[in-house]
C-alpha cells in the first residue's frame, strides 16, 4: 500500500542520511589524518632541508679551509724551491769561479815550468 511504501522510503531515506553522515564523519576523519600527516611530512622536510643546508655549509667550509691550506702549502713549496734554486745557483757560480781560479793557477804553473825548461 501507499503508506507502507512511504514508510519504507522514509526508512530508506533515513538510512541513506545516516550512511551519508557516517561517510562524512569518516571523510572528515580521513581529511584530518591526512592534514596531520602532511604537516608532519612538511615539518620533517623542513628539518631535513635545514640539516642538509647545515651539512652543505659545513662541507663548503671544510673545502674552503682545505683549499686555503693547499694554497699556503703551494706558496711554501714555491718559496722552498726558490731558496733551493738560489742556493744551487750560488753553488754553481762558486764552482765556476773555483774552476776558473784552478785553470789560471794551472796555466801559471805550466808557464813557469815551460820557462824553467827553456
Radius of gyration: 50 Å
Q: Helical content, roughly?
A: over 70%
The number of helices is 1
- The helix/strand series, from N terminus to C terminus, equals H
Number of extended strands? 0
List its traits.
1 helix, about 120 residues, single chain, mainly alpha
Would you kindly provide a written description of the structure presented here, covering whatever features stand out?
With 118 residues, the protein is mainly α. 98% of the residues lie in helices and 0% in strands. It has one helix spanning 2-117. The chain starts with a helix and ends with a helix. The mean pLDDT is 93.
Brief digest:
The chain has 118 residues and is mainly α. It has one helix at residues 2-117.
What is the strand and helix layout of this fold?
Elements: H1 2-117
